[in-house]
Amino acid sequence: MSVLRIAVQKSGRLHDESMELLKDIGISIDNGIDQLKASARNFPVEVFYLRNGDIPQYLKDGVVDAAIIGENVLIEKGEGINVAEKLGFSSCRVCIAVPKTMEYKSIKDLDGKRIATSYPHTVQMYLEEQGIKANLHIINGSVEIAPNIGLADAICDIVSSGSTLFKNNLKEVEMILKSEAVLAVSPILDEEKQAILDKIQFRIKSVLKGRNSKYVLLNAPNDKVNDIISVLPGMKSPTVLPLAEEGWSSIHSVISKNQFWDVIDDLKARGAQGILVCPIEKMVL
Ligand SMILES: Nc1ncnc2c1ncn2[C@@H]1O[C@H](COP(=O)(O)OP(=O)(O)OP(=O)(O)O)[C@@H](O)[C@H]1O
Ligand SMILES: O=P(O)(O)OC[C@H]1O[C@H](OP(=O)(O)OP(=O)(O)O)[C@H](O)[C@@H]1O
Ligand SMILES: [Mg+2]
């Protein structure tokens, strides 16, 4: 029987959330990361623990069938590899930054300059699009220090909170791309592996929808129910149930996490009382 081989980062920023996602979709892995490969107990999956930067090549070579990886690494090294699903964690952006003291007006100011980066292909593509020629210095880590030690005039690296740039007296001047963790898939999957992947994707969608939603319960006098449900989306439509107390109802609904606080304010203003908000584990539509 076919087994789908999934790569996850061995250690680093993606590891814990990748393992949590596998657990949430019901894939239990027995052994620890000391072994570089582990089998799932209850699903036709093998997990390979690899370096993030090595994963695109393993996908291309067909050594693994799928992977949880930063989209930025795929853009750098993963030509031809498909993104099956965005996973909603490890959000960051790849940016060009220069010393705060540099007077920067446009990308033209980087013509002929030295740029330190771990993402040479990504920077090169961006510069070519803009008709700029620069000298790239490839460094594997601590890129932000390069201008301070005279190694480069600018850098291109991952930015999230911006605190690493700030600490190194740099300012962000160009955003090349946005990234988050994704489920990447090898372009060569046979039918049986594709069927396993389809199941995994279906489960991931259910978990992500659950993570992005809240279950809301509230009480309201009957004469306010219509006004309240007019601002509630719900999966199909809100549930309205009578309370034991005459003249009152309980309303249940599902709200997207993004709209959550605005909707709650609106509900209170329309007379909702005793509002309860619960997490949703999975949402199957
Ligand atoms: N500061 C950050 N905030 C959010 N996400 C980040 C941040 N830094 C990196 N990432 C994302 O996490 C991924 C893994 O980063 P991490 O630093 O753990 O590994 P790495 O050193 O790039 O790779 P390797 O596993 O090959 O050592 C990156 O490719 C990026 O998608
Ligand atoms: O904008 P911030 O929130 O400060 O995050 C950005 C920093 O995070 C990453 O480094 P990481 O901590 O992964 O170290 P590394 O260079 O050793 O990978 C990235 O390479 C930046 O240096
Ligand atoms: Mg890093």
UniProtKB/TrEMBL annotation:
Subcellular location field: Cytoplasm
- One Pfam family from the record: HisG
Highest rank taxon of the organism: Bacteria
Q: Which GO terms describe its cellular component?
A: cytoplasm
Q: What is its EC number?
A: 2.4.2.17
Citing just one GO molecular function, the answer is: ATP phosphoribosyltransferase activity
Which keywords belong to this entry?
Amino-acid biosynthesis, ATP-binding, Cytoplasm, Glycosyltransferase, Histidine biosynthesis, Magnesium, Metal-binding, Nucleotide-binding, Transferase
| InterPro entries reported for this sequence | ATP-PRT_HisG_long, ATP_PRibTrfase_cat, ATP_PRibTrfase_CS, ATP_PRibTrfase_HisG, HisG_C, N-reg_PII-like_a/b, N-reg_PII/ATP_PRibTrfase_C
Per UniProt, residues of the Histidine biosynthesis HisG C-terminal domain are: 211-282
What's known about how it's activated or inhibited?
Answer: Feedback inhibited by histidine.
**What top-tier enzyme class does this entry carry?**
transferase
Q: What is its main location?
A: cytoplasm
Write down the chemical reaction(s) this protein catalyses.
1-(5-phospho-beta-D-ribosyl)-ATP + diphosphate = 5-phospho-alpha-D-ribose 1-diphosphate + ATP
Q: Which cofactor does it need?
A: Mg(2+)
According to UniProt, this protein's pathway is: Amino-acid biosynthesis; L-histidine biosynthesis; L-histidine from 5-phospho-alpha-D-ribose 1-diphosphate: step 1/9
Biological process terms from the Gene Ontology for this record are:
L-histidine biosynthetic process
Domain ATP phosphoribosyltransferase catalytic stretches: 51-205
Q: NCBIfam families in the record, alphabetically? A: hisG, HisG_C-term
Q: What role does it play?
A: Catalyzes the condensation of ATP and 5-phosphoribose 1-diphosphate to form N'-(5'-phosphoribosyl)-ATP (PR-ATP). Has a crucial role in the pathway because the rate of histidine biosynthesis seems to be controlled primarily by regulation of HisG enzymatic activity.
Question: Family, per the entry?
Answer: Belongs to the ATP phosphoribosyltransferase family. Long subfamily.
Q: What is this protein called?
A: ATP phosphoribosyltransferase
Gene for this protein? hisG
